[in-house]
Every structure is written in C-alpha cells, then in structure tokens.
Design brief:
Layout lengths: L3 H21 L4 H10 L44 H9 L12 H32 L1
Protein name: SH3 domain-containing protein
C-alpha cells in the first residue's frame, strides 16, 4: 500500500507538470481545469495495517540509533582529553613526543609521513572528482 507522503508528492508533481503544459500551450485552459478538478486535493486517509515504529529519542529529538556511542553525551566526545594532559605527555621523557626521547625522530617522521599521505590522498581525491565531473 502506498504511503500518504508519496501520494501527495506525486499529486504535486502532476499539478506542476500540468501547469507547465498549460503555460506551454499544449493543454488548453478548459482541459487544464477539467483535469485539475478530477485530482484529489490531498491523499486519502488510508487506515494503516500496522503500528508505527517508535524509536527511542535522546535529548534534542535525535533517534538514539543514529548516534555513535562515542559521540553521545557522556562518551569520549563529551569528555575530550584535556590539553594539559597532552602537554604533560610531551614533557615525559618516556613519551615519543618528547624531543629527547630516542625514538622521537621515528615518531616525528611517522607523523610527517601520515600528514604527507593525507595531503596526497586529498589531492588525488580532488583531481579524481574534477575528472569525473568534467566527463559528466
């Protein structure tokens, strides 16, 4: 059985197309009036054979099934790592972010390589998108 929204959308499309045909002179004004008079104003109210699905809502009206638990209130996103902890990790001589750590060069080069790879990937994605758009 068709849904009410789909029926209303189709009726609006028919009305729009008929107006175009009337304005183009393909359909005469009396024909236009006759066809429009036969169309229902809105979709008829059908009895629904099923109960609507109720989805649990979170604060703000967003269905909870669409929210990644990491970003839900109380998740990591709500409590990000404080900047002070990051700065303190860089001061720790046992952390690779510390310039005096023996593996700092490896850590920094890995970070640079990751940034470089991200830049190359982004440039490639942009060029690929431009190429596809120019073909279409």
């Amino acid at each position: 059985m068709a849904d009410k929204a789909g029926i209303n959308r189709s009726l609006n499309t028919i009305r729009t197309e008929l107006e175009y045909l009337r304005d183009s002179g393909v359909v005469s004004p009396p024909q236009f009036q006759s066809i429009m008079a036969q169309l229902p104003v809105n979709a008829p109210a059908f009895p629904t054979p099923y109960q609507p699905l109720t989805i649990p809502q979170q604060q703000g009206g967003v269905p909870s099934q669409y929210i990644d638990p990491r970003y839900a209130p109380g998740g990591n996103y709500a409590n990000p790592t404080p900047v002070a902890e990051i700065a303190q990790a860089a001061q720790d001589p046992n952390h690779p972010a510390n310039p005096k750590h023996p593996k700092h060069g490896q850590w920094a080069s890995k970070l640079g390589a990751k940034l470089g790879n991200a830049a190359i990937f982004g440039a490639g994605a942009t060029m690929g998108s431009d190429l596809v758009n120019s073909i279409i």
